[in-house]
Amino acid sequence: MTRNVFVLTGAGISAESGLGTFRDTEGVWARFDPMRLATPEGFAADPVLVQEFYNQRRRDARAAAPNPAHAALARLEAGLAERGGRLFLCTQNIDDLHERAGSRHVVHMHGELLRARCTACGTEPVWHEDLTVETACPHCAHGGGMRPDVVWFGEMPKHLDAIDEALAEADLFVAIGTSGAVYPAAGYVAQARAFGIPTLALTLEAADNAGMFEATRLGRASETVPAFVDEVLSETR
Ligand code: APR
């Protein structure tokens, strides 16, 4: 019986909630330049542009609603706990749709749009409003140093040690809605294979690292994820 599942989610799980993916034909990076909008250098060069880009994404995320895929993972978390197991939900997404669907333990390796970070004292308060270049830190009062608490290209993702530990303990590795284009997340399937863990991809189109997965199910997350969760939770032994 499956007890410990490691799930890695990407932008594809939030696509049906109306939030754009990055590398699909109309993706975010097809319309905006990631070097200007998702790097520390870009932020230093034009903080007003970057703050407004994330202000709009924060507004969009707050206006979005979780879809059946998010809800199914919340159900999986509760169901595995009932059998003495655990869901380790690692997301590359910076929205809070997993939490709003009821997931209680979510690891945001690329940070969170609904938190800010003070560049002076490092505090990372929950933040739902727009950020400007004058926004003062609520903790140290430093003016103009608040940035979105998201991980930009060239920065270290978060929670890497916890992720590596959870990978080693998993019975099953599942990647949902991710293109496998960005490391270290794209390398987790290889780590799972090295540990002898079964691997499954649930995605709309085959990912860059599709060949690494033992099984791939193509389809919309709002259909494939509930079906997958039903399978796991209906195991009788
Ligand atoms: N259901 C399931 N999968 C979907 C759906 C859907 N409705 N729509 C799109 N997908 C799949 C696409 O086929 C693609 O494989 O989701 C994936 C989205 O890939 P990307 O846009 O590259 O998003 P992601 O993999 O999350 O990007 C990783 O790159 O820019 C950085 O930090 C950013 O976290 C992001 C990281």
From TrEMBL:
The active site is at 110 (proton acceptor). Keywords: Cytoplasm, Metal-binding, NAD, Transferase, Zinc. It catalyses: N(6)-succinyl-L-lysyl-[protein] + NAD(+) + H2O = 2''-O-succinyl-ADP-D-ribose + nicotinamide + L-lysyl-[protein]; N(6)-acetyl-L-lysyl-[protein] + NAD(+) + H2O = 2''-O-acetyl-ADP-D-ribose + nicotinamide + L-lysyl-[protein]. Substrate binds at residues 54, 57. It is found in: Cytoplasm. Residues 1-235 form the Deacetylase sirtuin-type domain. Its EC number is 2.3.1.286. Its cofactor is Zn(2+). Zn(2+) binds at residues 118, 121, 137, 140. NAD(+) binds at residues 10-29, 92-95, 177-179, 221. Binds 1 zinc ion per subunit. PROSITE patterns: SIRTUIN. 2 residues (Tyr-54 and Arg-57) present in a large hydrophobic pocket are probably involved in substrate specificity. They are important for desuccinylation activity, but dispensable for deacetylation activity. HAMAP family: Sirtuin_ClassIII. NAD-dependent lysine deacetylase and desuccinylase that specifically removes acetyl and succinyl groups on target proteins. Modulates the activities of several proteins which are inactive in their acylated form. This is NAD-dependent protein deacylase. It comes from Methylorubrum rhodesianum. The gene is cobB.
